[in-house]
Amino acid sequence: MCSLNLRIMKPTDFSKYISDFISKYLPNEKGASANTIASYRDTFVLLLDFTQNQKHVRIENLTLEKITKETVIEFLDWIQKQRKCSDSTRNSRLAAIHSFYRYLQYESLDYLHECQKILSVKFKKSKKESINYLTIEGIKLFLQQPNTATSKGRRDLALLSLMYDTGARVQEIIDLTPSMLRLNKPATIKIIGKGNKARLVPMLDAQIEHLKNYLKENRLTEPFANMYPLFSNSRKEKLTRAGINHIVEKYIKMARKENEMIIPEKISCHSLRHSKAMHLLQAGVNLVYIRDILGHVSIQTTEIYARADSKQKREALEKAYVNVNPDEEPMWIQNENLVTWLKKF
């Protein structure tokens, strides 16, 4: 008999813990959203690529002890220098790594010291960009662009007006189904945000009319359509981020041709969310309510709109202004000989 030498590959400690982190801890214990899990997964795919091709460590041989604080810093430098990632992208990748090592320090005390060293890696201070948003007049012009004589134009109007009216994130709009709408007064929409947290957002009458017409036209009021995507493409598939971004860019370009003075050049899908927040703030709505509508975890996140609103700052200063200037001009302004005037004192 000939003997067969079979080499059975044993999983490394790194493969075990990263698999449990992605497939069990994030969805089950932390309740992370599918988007967060996908982002974290992509980070570790990049890290594996780096360790294999730059550090020359085969994936099947990668262990926890081979990933040190220095390795993490080299990885972060690599994605910025070689992959041209921004500071904010670097920080997102580091956040995923930090999350894993916070999990690991409780799962394996043997690596507690190295975990804490990796958790000490600092985030880069990224440049805070100004908030791009449309004025009320800009939003009106933007929403006038879809051709409502076509079914696609009617869909786009329902989509864009809902994005603005609710201040929802792109992914939140993508994940909507007809079952999440309540069109009877008071009309509300259930939005599933970050961390799978649900919030109810009120809708205005004008928005309800757009939605009712759109739902009826596309038979989305039927019971069988309850869990269909609220907005879909020509193949009845859920719209993608790229698809919605294309729709927004299309109508922004059209609106700019009509009036470039009220349509800034850099307007994105997220700008509609910013626009809603700014308009609520300018209308005097309390920041706490704006926070709840937008689904922010902390009021500090919502405060960026108050800091960005120069009009509100100016009006607040004007209300608090007290005229401390004398009504009459000082005598020395009228006196040609300032020295003579001063010597009188």
Secondary-structure topology with pairs:
Blueprint: H1 13-30, H2 34-53, H3 69-81, H4 87-107, H5 112-119, H6 136-143, H7 151-166, H8 170-174, E1 181-182, E2 188-192, E3 198-202, H9 205-217, H10 241-258, H11 269-282, H12 287-294, H13 299-308, H14 310-320, H15 331-334, H16 338-343
How does this structure look, described?
The chain is mainly alpha-helical. The protein is about 55% helix and about 5% strand. It is built from 16 helices and three strands. Strands 1-2-3 form a three-stranded antiparallel beta sheet, with no helix packed on it. The N terminus is likely disordered.
Quick overview of this protein structure:
This protein is mainly α. The protein contains 16 helices and three strands. Strand 2 and strand 3 form a beta hairpin.
Major sheet summary line: 3 strands, antiparallel
- State the CATH topology of the largest domain: hpI Integrase, Chain A
Give the helix level as a range of percent.
Answer: 55-70%
Question: What is the assigned CATH homologous superfamily of the largest domain?
Answer: Intergrase catalytic core
- Show unreliable segments: 1-9, 320-326
Which outline best applies?
globular
Measured between the Cα atoms of the first and last residue, the distance is 122 Å
What top-tier CATH class of the largest domain fits best?
A: Mainly Alpha
Rounded Rg: 28 Å
- Counted beta strands: 3
Average pLDDT taken over every residue: 84
Task: State the helix count.
Answer: 16
Strand percentage lies at: under 5%
Domains, number: 2
CATH architecture of the largest domain: Orthogonal Bundle
Based on secondary structure, the structural category is mainly alpha
State the strand order across the main sheet: 1-2-3
Order of helices and strands: HHHHHHHHEEEHHHHHHHH
